[in-house]
Amino acid sequence: MLKVQDYRPQPFIDFTQPENVAAYQAALQKVRAELVGKHYPLIINGERVDTEEKLTSVNPCNTCEVIGTTAKATIEDAQRALEGAWEAFETWKTWDMDARARILLKAAAILKRRRLEACALMTLEVGKSYAEADVEVAEAIDFLEYYARSAMKYADFGAAETTWFEGEENGMLYLPLGVGVSISPWNFPCAIFLGMLAAPLVVGNCVIAKPAEDSGMIAGFVVDILLEAGLPAGVLQFLPGIGSEVGEYLTTHPRTRFITFTGSRAVGLHINEVAAKTLKGQKWIKKVVLELGGKDALIVDETADLENAVTAATQSAFGFNGQKCSAMSRLIVVDEVYDAVVNAFVERARALKVGTGEENANVTAVVNEESFEKISQYLALGKNEGEVLLGGEAPGEWGGKKGYYVQPTIIGDVKPEARIAQEEIFGPVVAVLRARDWQDALAIANSTEYGLTGGVCSNDRERLEQARNEFEVGNLYFNRKITGAIVGVQPFGGYNMSGTDSKAGGPDYLANFLQLKAVTERW
Ligand code: NAD
């Protein structure tokens, strides 16, 4: 019997060991030989379908290099995918929960064997350093292992508690919703892509998965693993394409039962709006699960271990170039220790190595031209909204390679209402804010519309307890970095404009994709 208690997160690879670095470099060579230049077609009803137009993945650290292509779905493809998925649903929903779960477990086993290949592909496609890619593939495996086991609690009639009543049998049945669309971002193109489709699938839904435009190859790689693990035709339709075209078509379609979306606040709110409109022939109110952006803050007070705080700030701000929804983009320091903390933070960040993912640099290029342009605009704005203490430029090349390179940037004495302290930048750019004292720091932290992650470095017990209740974020960390949530350990999801707080990798996540039926028999 599968039990969630038996789940254990994957350990991470230690890249201080030379043999692990060598293994990673061998994987990069293998991927260059076997995957670079590959084309991933759509998969509809188990068949590979090609399209006239294609989407191209480019190495962001060396934009002259094409990594590969995927097909680009049309509206007709999306229509066929939706119809086919409803047909497949008729059978898939009747499978035993443990049989479906076994497919996830087998996929996890295959992904474990191909772990370094998946990592190396992301290094080339989105510019992840070795450790960043590794923790992501570990997370992807964790999602499969965790959701497979947690599905068991929804398997039986009577699994949900009801109260005894004389002369009757009462109980509840968890039933899948039907066919849904899963739309994912490029920044965790393996783990989030996989987690967002595995969860609805394991409890009996069929899914149309639309990966982000920049990261279709790792998505195709992962889908192949799920098919190898035995997923039947039509249950998962793979539909790379343009968000505003096929994504929009699917989210507005009356036969879409649920939407699970991770991405920007603007697109998420738009989806929320269009999904709420009822169309002719629509039989249900669409279920919408949204995980959006953040403007995440770390507070450092005068009681903190300052060395530890600076480490936490550096890791949280610059891991994967600040391109994590959980990344620290505001550092809030109380006046008494402001200079000491900020000076040490700047020196630590100055020592970060910029370069390519393949070189395993600490800070690599940002994902694409649109991001690069957007971050460049914020850098210009930042010069007026504070004092540039480090970086401030986006050179667009590094070490002789053309790429979307942005310098690690720290801007000091930013006012809480400044745009760079309020808006998500999604790059290696930190706004530092000076607080009068602890209470002021907490008020500043809560002064944005977002509420995803946050942290406090302090040794004052009362303050930590106050933050536990009053810091408005879905994921709160004390005396450590604010990124790197582990499946099952730190269920993940944001408050306010950061999302619907669905808590991916949490004990109730699968319930988002189920409906309950209460059944009574009078004896
Ligand atoms: P994005 O919103 O630009 O795109 C996300 C996905 O939406 C892509 O697949 C895109 O093709 C699709 N899309 C775009 N327009 C659409 C439309 N009109 N209809 C349907 N689909 C559409 O986001 P991104 O740049 O890929 O990702 C970065 C964002 O994601 C950041 O804001 C980040 O904070 C957020 N994010 C949040 C979490 C979380 O768990 N809260 C995790 C990762 C990323």
UniProtKB/TrEMBL annotation:
Pathway: Amino-acid degradation; L-proline degradation into L-glutamate; L-glutamate from L-proline: step 2/2. Its EC number is 1.2.1.88. SUPFAM superfamilies: ALDH-like. The active site is at residue 291. Pfam families: Aldedh. Belongs to the aldehyde dehydrogenase family. This is L-glutamate gamma-semialdehyde dehydrogenase.
